[in-house]
């Protein structure tokens, strides 16, 4: 399925001046694509831009500014693409909309200039692993595939370079907020749990609605793959029916069309076309990864990938950096980097998968976390907690009654050294923060890499 060019709306004859707010990966990629398509382009970044991005803009003769927004020039725009990091209700964005200037996302803009088949993957947790795994299967099948969105190189830049016939896009709620006509042929929703509520007026229903924008333009010809065990998703689908064909996956119940676990096998059925493989041959461990595998394999089934290719891919996939990544074993203690766990639900999956007694490194910028759902797992699996953050009071209050040892630290090096002292042979040390990273680190990647470096320096 491809979108016909008749549906494309952002053409040179209708929009000649594109302003891009944000000079990061998505902004620079959009600038290159827009210049290629004949737009007049201006990139404006309120912060300081990376030197490499400024060099790319200069090489392409694209006008830019940093550390300011020149509103007089910006308000001349026919169309604005904003970085997903800029809130929807930022004062400048509100002013633009007040003047009737359309504000969209990179995903929306770039999708107008490709007829490639699009697979869009969203969810509160698991979307990076599912996107990477889907990409891995399709590449192993010999497809000309591009991976983009919230991962990899900019979608717009890849469209400009014409690198793919199929795109696998990891989509955050922030990116989906800026779509109007974007239509993935296959949409995947890994799950929905409360996250980023500070961007959605602390209203869960606004966050859910944002996620479900992925289905907004789908038709009966398209597919929606989703977690049927997730009550939030099921409730929304009952209240707001979608047009696309639903293919659920579940660990808890059998499904007629979709994916489930039966007799210790993944079983996928789509119109009498069946796929199965034993769960114990999956390379990724944990129940959550069984779900990620089911979602990715369902996509591959829809695209008629050879069953043997799907099985081999699921057996050999090595996972993504910062997601339950085994770093080193020291004195028979396994150190695990799960820095990408920036919310409670992600950490729930991590703790659930732990089989050894665990020293848990947790903390950071608390997004209004509800830690109570972790209590039973912490009680069962965690022998000591190492807090890593500027303010650890909520973590201490939540777990002081079920864990005897709670240590406060203010740097990754200190946290890893304390965990080393507390761990005994056969234990695991797990970094799974359940929080954002911005108090002590640039981002979760920086946090994860500092953890790995500190472990290697023990």
Automatic annotation (TrEMBL):
Residue ranges occupied by any Mur ligase C-terminal domain in the UniProt entry: 322-435
Record field: catalytic activity: UDP-N-acetyl-alpha-D-muramoyl-L-alanine + D-glutamate + ATP = UDP-N-acetyl-alpha-D-muramoyl-L-alanyl-D-glutamate + ADP + phosphate + H(+)
Cell wall biogenesis/degradation found in the keyword field: yes
Catalytic activity, EC: 6.3.2.9
Subcellular location: Cytoplasm
Residue stretches in coiled coil: none
GO biological process terms on file: cell division; cell wall organization; peptidoglycan biosynthetic process; regulation of cell shape
InterPro entries found in the cross-reference section: Mur-like_cat_sf (IPR036565), Mur_ligase_C (IPR004101), Mur_ligase_C_dom_sf (IPR036615), Mur_ligase_cen (IPR013221), MurD (IPR005762)
Pathway(s) this gene product operates in, as recorded in its UniProt entry: Cell wall biogenesis; peptidoglycan biosynthesis
Keywords, comma-separated and alphabetical: ATP-binding, Cell cycle, Cell division, Cell shape, Cell wall biogenesis/degradation, Cytoplasm, Ligase, Nucleotide-binding, Peptidoglycan synthesis
Main location: cytoplasm
Superkingdom of source: Bacteria
Binding residues for ATP: 123-129
GO terms for MF: ATP binding; UDP-N-acetylmuramoylalanine-D-glutamate ligase activity
Matching Pfam families: Mur_ligase_C (PF02875), Mur_ligase_M (PF08245), MurD_N (PF21377)
UniProt-listed SUPFAM superfamilies: MurCD N-terminal domain, MurD-like peptide ligases, catalytic domain, MurD-like peptide ligases, peptide-binding domain
One GO location term (cellular component): cytoplasm
EC category name: ligase
Sequence ranges assigned to domain Mur ligase central in this UniProt record: 121-300
HAMAP family linked to this entry: MurD
Stored PANTHER family: UDP-N-ACETYLMURAMOYLALANINE--D-GLUTAMATE LIGASE (PTHR43692)
Family label: Belongs to the MurCDEF family.
Matching NCBIfam families: murD
Functional description taken from the UniProt entry: Cell wall formation. Catalyzes the addition of glutamate to the nucleotide precursor UDP-N-acetylmuramoyl-L-alanine (UMA).
Protein name according to UniProt: UDP-N-acetylmuramoylalanine--D-glutamate ligase
Phylogenetic classification of the source organism: Bacteria, Pseudomonadati, Bacteroidota, Flavobacteriia, Flavobacteriales
The gene coding this protein: murD
């Amino acid at each position: 399925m491809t979108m016909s060019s008749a549906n494309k709306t952002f053409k040179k004859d209708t929009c000649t001046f594109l302003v891009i707010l944000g000079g990061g990966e998505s902004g620079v990629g959009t600038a290159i694509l827009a210049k290629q398509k004949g737009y007049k382009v201006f990139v404006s970044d309120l912060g300081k831009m990376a030197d490499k991005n400024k060099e790319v803009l200069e090489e392409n003769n694209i006008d830019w500014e940093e550390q300011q927004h020149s509103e007089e020039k910006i308000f001349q725009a026919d169309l604005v693409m904003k970085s997903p990091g800029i809130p929807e209700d930022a004062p400048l964005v509100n002013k633009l909309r007040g003047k009737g200037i359309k504000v969209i996302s990179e995903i929306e803009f770039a999708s107008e200039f490709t007829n490639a088949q699009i697979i869009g993957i969203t969810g509160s947790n698991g979307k990076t692993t599912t996107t990477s795994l889907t990409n891995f299967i399709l590449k192993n099948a010999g497809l000309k595939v591009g991976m983009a969105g919230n991962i990899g190189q900019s979608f717009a830049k890849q469209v400009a370079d014409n690198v793919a016939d199929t795109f696998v896009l990891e989509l955050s709620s922030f990116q989906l907020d800026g779509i109007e006509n974007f239509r993935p042929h296959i949409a995947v929703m890994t799950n929905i749990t409360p996250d980023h509520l500070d961007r959605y007026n602390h209203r869960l229903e606004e966050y859910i609605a944002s996620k479900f924008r992925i289905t907004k333009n789908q038709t009966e010809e398209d597919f929606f793959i989703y977690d049927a065990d997730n009550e939030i998703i099921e409730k929304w689908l009952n209240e707001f029916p979608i047009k696309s064909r639903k293919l659920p996956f579940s660990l808890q119940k059998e499904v007629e069309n979709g994916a489930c676990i039966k007799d210790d096998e993944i079983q996928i059925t789509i119109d009498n076309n069946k796929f199965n493989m034993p769960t114990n041959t999956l390379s990724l461990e944990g129940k959550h990864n069984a779900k990620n595998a089911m979602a990715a394999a369902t996509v591959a089934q829809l695209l008629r990938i050879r069953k043997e290719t799907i099985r081999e891919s699921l057996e050999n996939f090595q996972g993504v950096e910062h997601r339950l990544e085994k770093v080193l074993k020291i004195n028979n203690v396994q150190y695990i980097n799960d820095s990408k766990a920036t919310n409670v639900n992600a950490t729930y999956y991590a703790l659930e998968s732990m089989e050894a007694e665990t020293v848990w490194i947790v903390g950071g910028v608390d997004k209004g976390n509800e830690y109570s759902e972790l209590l039973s797992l912490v009680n069962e699996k965690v022998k000591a907690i190492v807090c890593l953050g500027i303010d650890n009071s909520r973590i201490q209050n939540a777990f002081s009654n079920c864990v005897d040892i709670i240590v406060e630290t203010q740097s990754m090096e200190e946290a890893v050294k304390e965990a080393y002292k507390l761990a005994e042979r056969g234990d695991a040390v797990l970094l799974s923060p359940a929080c954002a990273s911005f108090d002590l680190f640039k981002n979760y990647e920086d946090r994860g890499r500092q953890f790995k470096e500190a472990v290697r320096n023990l």
